[in-house]
């Protein structure tokens, strides 16, 4: 009796669970997704979708509120329409992990970016092809390569401060740092700067790229007087200049006057990368390497001005390093290793003002996330800044506190993503770090600064953060007495 009812119960349980078992066993991946719902939300207006609304918000620096409102209304997975793509917008560290590591997603650039920079950049290739092109860049960007350039960067930074800061009463920081980072990159990665020719090409390219970067997230309408048409014209001139450099490098390589280790272009030529791909990748690197780092240094100075405790610690750290150097002696790798607090302050700046708003992905196939299906061909977007301003990850997120980064292991995985993550993580992060530390060392030990009257430190995004008035500061040289360096 007892046993019978037991059997009955088991049979009944079995029958009840049959539909579940059936689904587990037989519902294949193929049609499983079609039963899942699309993320909640809306696609907005026909054609323009949410593009104009988000771009306006970026310029007004309210994009954060814009995204926050969507997340509040629809939850951590929602849909919208951006740059004519149906887009899934994901929020939170586990969403970031999905974006950076899911094999169902690949990188994509905005249409405006592709038309200006090219469609065969490192971000447009996948699998082995991606690994091959990335390796050519990493050859010049990995730590031991960057270490060899500390002294070269040091010279470039000092030259820049001598000609753009010394003797002046005020400086617009962002334009100055854009010129500096462009020059450093041109010299170190592309060998433009050793000769008089190099310096000329560099100046020409720098002007074109200042224009070009403003169109990265523009509406790609090539009509007279649009922002995009101006940027596209600049990119065409930039491409011609880059193509000229490639020709000159090829001639040198063929005549045995150069070696693949000299610069990225010669290296790519020696690996047989087609010319158009070299041009696209050089264009890409020139965009990727200069504005981002310029924004980091600029906003670091901004935060140090507003946070005197942090400034005092940075100053002390840097002066201690300066005291160990002989007059005119360049910084070394060992010196940079002693800049721990300064780098924590830079990380805190990357947290509060991440240069990259969001990097776009595209679904290669239907893929599920958070209980919803993201159909093949959709764009996927996350938010760096929303992650970095999440009180669950960084308590009291509005407070500038470099101490958060004194123990980086305390930060949850994918909770701090200024450089992205996964196989596509920024390969230029060591380069950016060294460049930032060298620059901050010389600025902090040579000048005192404060925001100029009328400059409030506010900023807009396009999508790189750009401070109003370029962050205009009043500067004053620091008198080192007899120990002048
Ligand atoms: C503070 C400075 C910088 C920031 C915040 C930054 C940020 C980023 C981010 C977020 C990505 C995308 C990762 C992804 O899609 O998951 C990226 C990619 C990339 N960055 Fe940077 N970057 C910086 C400096 C640099 C520099 C100095 C270089 C080169 C010298 C560089 C070269 C690249 C390249 C080549 C990629 C594409 C990698 C790939 O698709 O495999 N970046 N960067
Ligand atoms: C990041 O979000 C905060 C809080 O919403 C906002 O005040 C800030 O302007 C945003 N910063 C950037 C760089 O988007």
In short:
With 485 residues, this protein is an alpha+beta fold.
Tell me what the structure shows.
- The structure is a single chain.
- The protein is α+β, with helices and mostly antiparallel strands and 485 residues long.
- It has a single domain (25-483), classed as Cytochrome p450 (Orthogonal Bundle).
- Helix content is 54%, strand content 10%.
- The chain has helices at residues 2-26, 29-35, 51-59, 63-74, 93-101, 111-117, 127-141, 143-147, 150-164, 173-190, 196-212, 227-254, 264-270, 275-306, 308-323, 333-337, 340-352, 384-388, 429-446; strands at 77-82, 85-90, 105-107, 170-172, 361-363, 367-369, 372-374, 379-381, 447-451, 459-461, 465-467, 472-477.
- A hairpin with a 3-residue loop joins strand 10 and strand 11 (465-467).
- It is globular and about 70 Å long.
- The model is unreliable at 18-33 (pLDDT under 50).
- The protein binds protoporphyrin IX containing FE (HEM) and 2-acetamido-2-deoxy-beta-D-glucopyranose (NAG).
- 2-acetamido-2-deoxy-beta-D-glucopyranose is lined by residues 61, 64, 353, 385, 389, 465.
- Keywords: Heme, Iron, Membrane, Metal-binding, Monooxygenase, Oxidoreductase, Transmembrane, Transmembrane helix.
- Pfam families: p450 (PF00067).
- The chain crosses the membrane at residues 6-26.
- It comes from Miscanthus lutarioriparius.
């Amino acid at each position: 009796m007892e046993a019978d009812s037991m059997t009955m119960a088991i049979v009944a349980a079995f029958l009840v669970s049959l539909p579940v078992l059936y689904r587990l066993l037989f519902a294949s991946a193929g049609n499983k997704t079609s039963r899942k719902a699309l993320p909640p939300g809306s696609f907005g207006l026909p054609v323009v979708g949410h593009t104009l609304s988000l771009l306006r918000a970026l310029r007004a620096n309210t994009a954060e509120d814009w995204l926050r409102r969507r997340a509040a209304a629809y939850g951590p997975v929602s849909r919208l329409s951006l740059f004519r793509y149906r887009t899934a917008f994901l929020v939170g560290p586990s969403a970031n992990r999905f974006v950076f590591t899911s094999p169902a997603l690949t990188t994509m650039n905005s249409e405006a970016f592709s038309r200006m920079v090219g469609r065969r950049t490192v971000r447009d290739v996948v699998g082995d092809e991606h690994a091959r092109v990335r390796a050519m860049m990493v050859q010049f960007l990995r730590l031991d390569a960057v270490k060899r350039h500390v002294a070269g960067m040091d010279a470039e930074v000092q030259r820049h401060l001598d000609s753009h800061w010394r003797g002046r009463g005020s400086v617009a920081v962002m334009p100055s740092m854009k010129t500096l980072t462009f020059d450093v990159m041109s010299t170190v990665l592309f060998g433009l700067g050793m000769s008089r020719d190099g310096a000329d090409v560099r100046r020409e390219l720098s002007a074109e790229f200042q224009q070009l970067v403003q169109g990265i997230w523009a509406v790609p309408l090539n009509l007279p007087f649009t922002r995009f048409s101006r940027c596209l014209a600049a990119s065409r001139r930039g491409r011609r200049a880059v193509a000229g450099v490639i020709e000159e490098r090829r001639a040198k390589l063929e005549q045995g006057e150069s070696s693949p280790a000299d610069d990225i272009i010669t290296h790519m030529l020696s690996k047989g990368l087609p010319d158009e791909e070299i041009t696209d990748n050089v264009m890409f690197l020139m965009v990727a390497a200069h504005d981002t780092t310029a924004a980091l240094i600029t906003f670091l100075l901004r935060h140090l001005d507003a946070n005197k405790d942090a400034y005092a610690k940075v100053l002390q750290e840097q002066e201690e390093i300066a005291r160990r150097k002989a007059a005119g002696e360049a910084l070394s790798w060992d010196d940079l290793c002693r800049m721990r607090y300064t780098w924590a302050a830079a990380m805190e700046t990357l947290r509060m003002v991440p240069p990259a708003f969001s990097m776009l992905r595209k679904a290669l196939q239907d893929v599920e996330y958070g209980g919803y299906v993201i159909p093949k061909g959709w764009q996927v977007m996350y938010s760096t800044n929303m992650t970095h301003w999440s009180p669950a990850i960084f308590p009291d997120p509005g407070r500038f506190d470099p101490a958060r980064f004194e123990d980086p292991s305390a930060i949850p995985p994918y909770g701090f993503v200024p450089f992205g993550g996964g196989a596509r993580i920024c390969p230029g992060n060591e380069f950016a770090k060294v460049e930032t530390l060298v620059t901050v060392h010389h600025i902090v030990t040579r000048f005192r600064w404060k925001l100029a009257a009328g400059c409030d430190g506010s900023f807009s995004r396009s999508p790189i953060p750009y401070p109003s008035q370029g962050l205009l500061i009043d500067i004053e040289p620091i008198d080192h007495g007899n120990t002048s360096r």
